[in-house]
Amino acid sequence: MERSRQLEKQLKEVKVERDVLQRDFQLYMKENKILKEQLESLRSSHTETDTQAVQMLNKIRNQHQQLAV
Q: Is this entry keyworded Coiled coil (predicted)?
């Protein structure tokens, strides 16, 4: 009986961890999509100067690295 309670407790903990990981993954995918859209917009934009383009790419790269951490 005690073993059963321990297993139930472990199962609850695993489910909580799974839910957190799923939420984090969904957030990562959403942010990744936004970053890809920003990058595509930057690539297709001909009105940006080279300096502004480099700054935007660095910003996107930094945001992506922060998400990966």
A: yes
The helix (H) or strand (E) run that includes residue 33 is helix 2-44
Task: Give buried/exposed letters for 37-53 (b at 16+ CB in 10 A, else e).
Answer: eeeeeeeeeeeeeeeee
Helix crossing, 2-44 with 50-68: angle to 10°? 170
Alpha-carbon span 9 to 20, nearest angstrom = 17
CB 28 within 8 Å of CB 65: no
pLDDT, tens digit, 9 for 90 and up, residues 29-55: 999 999 999 988 877 766 657 778 788
The total domain count for the chain is 1
Model's pTM, two decimal places? 0.55
